[in-house]
Amino acid sequence: MSATAAAADSIRYAVRITGVNRVGLTVSNYGFFGNNFNSRTPSFEFPLGSGFEHMSRAGLWVGAVAVSDTGLFTGVSTGIIDDNQGTNALSGTEFTPAGNVVLERSRIPNNPSYSKLAISDEDLVCAYSDEPARGPQGYLSEAHQPLDVVVNQTTLGFSLPAAQDFEVMRFSIVNHGPPLKNLYVGFFVQLTIGNKNLYPTWPPSATAGAGSWYYKVYAEYDTTRRMYRAHYCQSVPYPGFCNFNAVPPWSAVKLLGVHPDSVAAKVVSFNWWNHTLGDTSLAVDRQRYARMSDGLHMDPRDCQPGAAQCSPIAMLSVGPFAQVDPGDTVTVDYALIGGDDETALFKNADFAQFASDINYRLPSPPPSPRLRVAAGANRVDYYWDDSPEHTPDETSPAPNHLDFEGYRLYLGLDRQHPQRIAQFDNAAPPGDTVGFNTGFAAVRHDTIIDGVPYQYHYAVHGLRDG
């Protein structure tokens, strides 16, 4: 199927929001991430439910030397450009959905979206093409000339505690046209950080709430980890005037891996710039391709927050893929990462890299049991079944891959502050490696409610009614 046919199959622009872990990310089927703050729904919210936003917009760039009927040309297809800040992003993308949905898949057996094709607990899958050709749009001063590529995009989210603070973005770029030379892949991102709960109106206004959302970023680039990281900072000097407590978490974008070859065999570039209206330095493809392929590691600390009114836009890119023949695929993985503090961010980034290195074959958490919660006078009764005990984890070496450890019950006023109220640990091997191995006898209670069998019961007393 040609790129044109794929794009024309059924065009419907769609978005989804991740929700399986602590990262709330808006994902589209046209190469754009975030929501440009058009709504209060998560753009890149971490922790999910906190109101702490870390990104207004991001998107994929693909650049290469290609051939058309008129000869060789240098082309860059973009999911986001500078001048569409605050728009719905469709005016800035050069990608067109090759399908009409963002499909969800899950490796968790009792999930309604369970699929043997799933990699993570929540895969969001879509495809888009850089067809058709189109005329100049707004900030872009030249017509879009397609490379004839289709991008198969998958975001990967894990609920495993060690992996719950990042979301992987996998881009598999398939050449549907003539050979491409020296292909580069880049991730454009504007990490802009604040607390949306402080703004009575939305989008955030410079004259309301906590004032301007922008110009409040302290950022660094870590060459070893290939990671651009940022934190809320009101003004210099750093760190004394930053007021870190206003938004405590850190956020980052990291390059994880490429195929074919390895990242070590490629040139990784990190660039940042402070875009202003009327800036034409990236208005044509040759300029954007030069930016993606320059091999620079710029220092974002030069973009000072506060009075200097600098709000960095960043590009983390990798290449070249010297020859991409018709039908060949280039795959590049990035991750958006959160951390409750700087130490946690580094730990999460390193685990994301570990997960990438083992092709994301992470331990699979058991599915949540079928749960019934019944409220009574000053009490809550929990009933659940034993289905997690019989669900295999294909990554486990235990007999029949069964290594269930136990149950933990939580109660809280919101998802950010749950309190563990009880724990019951498997006493039988191989599921006796965690906890106190007290067994399940204390809560074993076979009952049937509304025709549904439950094997366990636990009551919480002394609660206030209402």
Topology:
Blueprint: H1 3-8, E1 15-17, E2 24-28, E3 32-33, E4 44-45, E5 52-53, E6 57-68, E7 71-78, E8 96-97, E9 103-105, E10 122-129, E11 149-157, E12 166-175, E13 180-190, E14 194-195, E15 217-222, E16 227-232, E17 250-259, E18 267-273, H2 285-292, E19 313-324, E20 329-339, H3 342-357, E21 371-376, E22 379-384, E23 406-411, E24 419-425, E25 444-449, E26 452-461
Antiparallel strand pairs: 1-2, 2-4, 3-6, 5-14, 6-7, 6-13, 8-10, 9-10, 10-11, 11-12, 12-20, 13-19, 15-16, 16-17, 17-20, 18-19, 21-22, 22-26, 23-24, 25-26
Q: What does this entry look like structurally?
A:
With 466 residues, the protein is mostly beta strands. Helices cover 6% and strands 37% of the residues. The protein has three helices and 26 strands. The strands form six sheets. Strands 8, 9, 10, 11, 12, 15, 16, 17 and 20 form a nine-stranded antiparallel β-sheet that branches. Strands 3, 6, 7, 13, 18 and 19 form a six-stranded antiparallel β-sheet that branches. The protein is globular, with a radius of gyration of 24 Å.
Index terms:
6-stranded antiparallel β-sheet; 466 residues; globular; mainly beta
Offer a concise description of the structure:
The protein is 6% helix and 37% strand. By secondary structure, it is mainly β.
